[in-house]
Write a structure and sequence with these properties.
heterodimer, A: 131 residues, alpha/beta, 5 strands, globular, B: alpha/beta, Rossmann fold, Heat Shock Protein 90, 11 helices, 49% helix
């Protein structure tokens, strides 16, 4: 990793999951801004520009993650976004970013299953940050 | 006013125009239907033409002559069945041929209208068919909706059950890998949080048991005179260990109507949930006030607290399954998000309503209103 410290905006309404992911990312050398809700994430976005964002899908509402993706991309089109959710594993519903149509309305760069190993998340972040 | 499309397939123009004339201003009404039905008549002279119109217009009812110039009526019927169209078919026949009748019946024709028919005969048949079609569709709709609701419930439930497991697993892995160092002290908050998640999972499982206990039909043999006064003191006793810990003070005010005719289990669920919430979401040293009252028509139960309260937005989702208000004040309070949805369901079984008034940081008042008439009716059925 280069000498520069990258900032990750992390939003998840499960405080324990948030703590654990933030812990690993900090250990991996990132600066982490961890928030528990869509509303807090929106406040952060209005004040600062993260290098990358990782959003949970379901927070205050079922589509909080999508809304955050949209808002972040509108303000900072170049900031990569990872959407992490447990939705598909638990409901059997599947959606990803594989078709152009999906990418049009899910404005995330990467879609990850929640519960991804910390090292893999680190790897995916590095790929998106091109470091 | 709803309109059904009727397609008449008959090679005699007189029959077709007759049907159109008779049913043109006919309407069917029935107490269980939301609205009256009227009819729009389509006509076809041959089976081939009929199939074309069926594919294009998708009629609701098909009146089918068997003896047609080209393909026979029963073949049109077979076509409808094969395509699995939602169309009720009645045969119009000029002579009774057992063969045709059996074949048509096997293919799902539900009625036979003998030719020639009087306007009254036709109207009577159409009325029957309309009711059947209506019931079939409503049953189908209910089945589909039921499945959808169950699927949603189960998928949210599985999410709610897995989330604490994932959190605890995450903490255990951290400990296993000694991510925070070798001293157990470093893991104090991880252990504390794990215990909290286990506690909330236990609550969820207990609420689920309540959820299944609420039989969604009243069982008359369980109905009895239930003392509201006793229910209130039982609920207070149940929650008292927690209340003592938080230094909560109870005020109970039984103004009248001490007993209600009900399944005691139902009112235990209502009382216990409201009282334990009033303690859970209260501030240390707060007060919980429980009032039982009635007027000529209604029982009124209210439980108020002096706790964290909620804003209007937070109130809207309050009675939905698995919805929990998430903010800084609720973070360390464990709950399944099922309690109030169960209470609402039980209250609705008694045709009652539950209301909430709340001011953030001042407290909330939950009021359950049960109509007396309903209670008397249940009693009268015995």
């Amino acid at each position: 990793m280069s000498s520069r410290i990258y900032t990750v905006l992390l939003a998840d309404d499960d405080p324990d999951y948030l703590f654990q992911v933030a812990f690993y990312l900090r250990k991996a050398g990132y600066e982490v801004v961890a928030v528990e809700s869509q509303a807090e994430a929106e406040q952060v976005i209005s004040k600062m520009k993260p290098d990358i964002a990782v959003f949970d899908l379901m927070m205050e509402s079922d589509d909080s993650g999508f809304i955050l993706c949209y808002k972040l991309k509108r303000k900072y089109p170049e900031v990569p976004v990872i959407l992490a959710t447990a939705v598909s594993r638990e409901t059997g519903l599947t959606f990803g970013l594989n078709s152009g149509q999906d990418r049009e309305w899910i404005r995330a760069d990467l879609y990850l299953e929640k519960g991804v190993r910390p090292e893999q998340l680190d790897l995916e972040i590095k790929k998106l940050l091109k470091i | 006013m709803a309109q059904l499309k009727i397609l008449v397939v008959d090679d005699e123009p007189g029959i077709r125009s007759g049907v159109a004339r008779i049913l043109g201003n006919f309407h069917v009404t029935y107490p269980f239907m939301d609205e009256d039905y009227t009819y729009n008549i389509l006509e076809a002279a041959t089976g081939e033409e009929g199939i074309e119109i069926i594919d294009r217009e998708m009629p609701d009812i098909l009146l089918l002559d068997n003896k047609l110039p080209g393909i026979q009526g029963v073949e049109v019927l077979e076509y409808v069945r094969k395509k699995n169209y939602d169309i009720v078919v009645a045969m119009i026949t000029s002579y009774a041929s057992i063969d045709v009748a059996v074949r048509a019946h096997n293919d799902g024709a539900i009625d036979f209208i003998p030719k020639p028919f009087t306007p009254q005969e036709l109207k009577a048949s159409i009325e029957q068919i309309t009711k059947q079609q209506y019931l079939r569709r409503i049953t189908h709709k209910l089945k589909v909706e039921g499945k959808k609701v169950r699927f949603q419930f189960l998928s949210v439930l599985s999410h709610e059950l897995k989330a604490p497991l994932n959190a605890i697993e995450g903490y255990l892995k951290m400990m296993h890998e000694r991510q925070m160092g070798d001293s157990l002290d470093e893991y104090a908050s991880a252990i504390e949080r794990s215990l909290q998640r286990i506690d909330s999972m236990r609550h969820l499982i207990m609420d689920l048991l309540d959820f299944t206990k609420v039989s969604f039909e009243r069982q008359l043999e369980k109905m009895q005179n239930v003392s509201l006064k006793e229910l209130v003191s039982m609920a207070v006793v149940t929650v008292s260990p927690y209340a003592i810990h938080k230094d909560i003070h109870f005020v109970t005010d039984i103004k009248g109507c001490e007993t209600i005719w009900a399944d005691p289990n139902d009112f235990e669920i209502i009382m216990n949930n409201l009282v334990s919430n009033a303690v859970k979401y209260n501030n240390t040293g707060g007060t919980v006030t429980i009032t039982v009252d009635c007027n000529d028509n209604e029982f009124l139960l209210s439980v108020s607290d002096t706790g964290i309260g909620m804003n209007a937005d937070e109130k809207t989702m309050l009675f939905e399954e698995f919805s929990r208000i998430k903010n800084d004040k609720t973070r360390n309070i464990s709950g399944s998000g099922l309690g109030l949805s169960i209470v609402r369901k039980v209250v609705e079984l008694y045709h009652g309503v539950i209301k909430v008034e709340s001011i953030p940081d001042k407290g909330s008042v939950f009021t359950v209103i049960i109509p007396k008439l309903q209670v008397t009716n249940i009693k009268a059925e015995l």
